[in-house]
Amino acid sequence: MAMNKREKTPEQALRSLMNLCVKAERSEFDVRRLLERWGVAEEERQRIVDTLVRERFVDNRRYAEAYVREKVRFSGWGRYKIRAALRAKRIDESIVEGALEQVDGASMREKLEHRLQMKMNRTRARDAYDLRGKLVRYGAGLGFDTDTVLEVVERLMKERGEITEN
């Protein structure tokens, strides 16, 4: 198993991270993982992270806001999936909530509707019940709350004639 674990001196690591952070937002967690992968000594890691934060190369709040915008706009993720991903990066809960508050609920719902419509068009199902189950699981997997997913799935299925009013 050949792994590219290139060792770096603390100075090389700091320069590399500054270059990476200029090109794209990074979280403190991402930076720490890179430092560990590069074999930077434990005591040097914190000093480097502190320098990057102090000089504003790394900012978890800015990272979380950019992450949320990207995942909503390009990936069509819902709040639950985004929250879980940011928690996995050890972003403080108050920062995560602040970033999620900036998301327009209507645009998230539009993304969900669009993704469910596309999924509906390419999904094979035995019957309406099977189709509904597949669409609900897909919507939940995108990180949307169950009530919203059910509401959108029901409306889309009615529009397509898969189910009729009771």
Written overview of the protein:
This protein is 72% helix and 0% strand. With 166 residues, the protein is mainly alpha-helical. Helix 4 packs across helix 6 and helix 7 (105-122) crosses helix 9. The termini are far apart.
List the helices and strands and how they pair.
Blueprint: H1 10-23, H2 28-37, H3 42-54, H4 60-75, H5 79-88, H6 93-101, H7 105-122, H8 128-141, H9 146-160
Helix pairs in contact: 1-3, 2-3, 4-6, 5-6, 7-8, 7-9, 8-9
What's the short story on this structure?
About 70% of the residues lie in helices and about 0% in strands. By secondary structure, the protein is an all-alpha fold.
Unreliable stretches (pLDDT < 50, length at least 5) are none
Order of helices and strands: HHHHHHHHH
* Number of helical regions: 9
Summed over residues and divided by their number, the pLDDT gives a mean of 92
The fraction of residues in strands falls at under 5%
Main sheet makeup: none
The counted number of beta strands is 0
- What Rg do the Cα atoms give? 21 Å
The helix content is over 70%
Alpha carbon gap, first and last residue: 59 Å
Give the class from helix and strand content and strand pairing.
mainly alpha
What is the 3D form?
elongated
Summary tags:
mainly alpha; 0% strand
